[in-house]
Specification:
Layout lengths: L1 H15 L1 H6 L14 H18 L6 H15 L5 H4 L2 H17 L4 H25 L7 H11 L2 H8 L7 H31 L8 H11 L6 H23 L4 H8 L7 H22 L9 E6 L2 H4 L6 E3 L9 E6 L8 H10 L5 H8 L4 H9 L7 H4 L3 H17 L6 H25 L5 H11 L4 H13 L6 H18 L5 H10 L5 H8 L4
Helix pairs in contact: 1-3, 3-4, 4-11, 6-7, 7-10, 8-10, 9-10, 12-21, 14-17, 17-20, 17-21, 20-24, 21-22, 21-24, 22-23
């Protein structure tokens, strides 16, 4: 009964969220963004509650409990409806919904253009729905301005960048023609957001009650925001002591600042050096037999998309669609937006210094996000639910765990690279402290930026981008170190029970998807 119910739920979910369905490789959902009307959001909320009521009496299983964790999170967020508060809810669906099919190339070019043309025709209605749905009393000026920066890139994205994904001139011209109304809609939406930022009076702070509910009910961590904050403080203190020891001075920030003087000279040089480090990390996996590499996997190291640069100041990754045979992922190198000043570019290069490139490459590629995503996609016997529903508390936790794993085999070959690795971990501890403090009312954005500049190796510009992200995406930033520490504990239990080798552990727990950590533990220990 549970399997049939879960399959029915997934079919319903895909129909309600076709952009997500397309992202994981469902070609049946390639030509639409779906319904963004207020009535649709309200209907989905009612149906989420009905699905939870139907699934709760079913026998416990990892897959059933995964869906329940998703539903509990969705229902908790009714008290904090992103569709009424955050323009990014709409723009992200549009931008990624248009770009990802061209990255994945699951259809011939003509089929991609046909599907994209259909979606471009929907852009005006999606953005018009956003204008109707966003509530000035709930939307925060800070969050609106963040989305405004991205919306302003819409015209150039649909008219200039997107057509470059098409090689045939006649198909490219067709795409440009279809993009004109979408570009005009982005212009209108940017003007709307400019005005909304002046009228908005909402608070971006989530509050301790909902923050803790998401940690406990959705992420299945067993503790709330006060304990998460304390864990961050404890981890930061331990990592700072290690930084002092490695640097040979309490003023380790000056040592890191000096190391950041050695950075790639240009943004393209930064991309090329990341590509070289990515190849070196993959070689280390083979040499030390740390994981099983799936056949056909490839990690392409490319500049971040223009629209992404307005809201993301650090490296990121987009994986292959897991419901297909594709194994190509994209490591996005954090280029600055067009028109950035020389100072902004220098700060970005300094934040991606040569002492930091090795650990970031491990995190984004091997055996971090790219290996994880391609390995999950290779698990043909897994329920599709595990391909669709992913939590950053596992996926980002895994990638940070991978950074430490590569240190254990001597991958960071210079003192500067080791220091860069530990500082990257310390940075994630600082995120735990700052995110909880921001959303529970103990810190302002200005205080958070000052904290990140003083207590990590971030430059001021990157710190500002980071804090803006924390304000807009509560609970995401602590996922990295929280997840890595939990995976360490699961690994200790797995090896202590003699259940297999280290490589077996990695293949098993990472192959289970990106489950809430309590469920990942059950899979790793054979307690499904």
């Amino acid at each position: 009964m549970t399997t049939d119910t879960l399959t029915a739920y997934l079919s319903w979910y895909f129909e309600q969220h076709p952009a997500h369905a397309a992202q994981v490789g469902s070609l049946a959902h390639y030509s639409t963004f779906g319904d963004f009307s207020a009535a649709a959001f309200e209907r989905r909320a009612r149906e989420n509650a009905a699905w939870r009521a139907e699934l709760e009496p079913e026998p416990a299983s990892v897959d059933r409990d995964l869906v329940l964790s998703v539903l509990r999170g969705e229902l908790a967020m009714e008290a904090w409806p992103a569709w009424r508060r955050d323009p990014h809810e709409y723009t992200a669906s549009v931008f990624f919904g248009l770009l990802l099919p061209f990255l994945h190339r699951l259809l011939p070019e003509e089929g991609l253009v046909e599907a994209t043309t259909a979606k471009l025709a929907e852009v005006p209605s999606v953005l018009a729905a956003a204008e109707r749905n966003l509530d000035p009393a709930l939307a925060s000026p800070l969050v609106v301005r963040r989305a405004l920066a991205q919306a302003r890139t819409g015209r150039s994205f649909v008219l200039d960048a997107l057509p470059l994904e098409v090689s045939a001139p006649e198909l490219r011209a067709r795409l440009v023609d279809a993009a004109v109304p979408a570009a005009e809609a982005f212009d209108r939406f940017a003007a709307f957001l400019d005005d909304l930022a002046l009228r908005a009076t909402g608070d971006w702070r989530m509050g301790e009650k909902l923050y803790s509910a998401l940690l406990q009910d959705k992420e299945m961590l067993g503790y709330g925001s006060p304990e998460l904050h304390q864990r961050g403080q404890d981890a930061y203190a331990a990592l700072e002591a290690e930084m002092v020891e490695l640097a040979g001075t309490p003023d380790w920030r000056s040592v890191m600042s000096a190391l950041q003087d050695d950075h790639p000279p240009t943004l393209e040089a930064m991309r090329a050096e990341y590509e070289a480090e990515t190849r070196r990390a993959r070689t280390a996996l083979v040499e030390h037999q740390l994981v099983t590499l799936p056949e056909g996997e490839e990690c392409r190291v490319v500049p971040s998309p223009q629209f992404h640069r307005a809201v993301m100041a650090v490296a990121s990754y987009v994986g292959p669609p897991p419901m297909t045979a594709g194994r190509v992922g994209h490591f996005f190198v954090p280029f600055t937006a067009d028109g950035a000043s020389d100072l902004d570019i220098t700060q970005r290069l300094r934040t991606n210094a040569r002492s930091q490139l090795p650990t970031i490459s491990v995190h984004e590629a091997y055996p971090g996000h790219h290996w994880h995503a391609s390995w999950v996609a290779a698990q043909g016997d897994a329920h599709p639910l595990r391909w669709v529903f992913r939590t950053p508390y596992f996926s980002e936790g895994w990638a940070l765990y991978a950074e430490k794993l590569l240190r254990s085999v001597g991958h960071y070959t210079t003192p500067g690279a080791v220091l860069g690795h530990v500082e990257a971990r310390l940075f994630r501890a600082a995120r735990m402290v700052v995110d909880t403090a921001l959303h529970c009312g103990d810190m302002t954005p200005d205080e958070a930026e000052s904290f990140m500049v003083a207590r990590t190796a971030l430059t001021p510009g990157t710190a500002a981008g980071e804090v803006s992200r924390y304000c807009a995406r509560p609970t995401q930033a602590p996922a990295y170190l929280t997840g890595a520490l939990e995976i360490d504990l699961i690994r200790e239990e797995y090896l202590g029970r003699g259940l297999g080798s280290l490589r077996d552990f990695h293949d098993r727990i990472a192959g289970s998807g990106a489950l809430p950590l309590g469920l990942a533990r059950r899979v790793a220990l054979g307690e499904e």
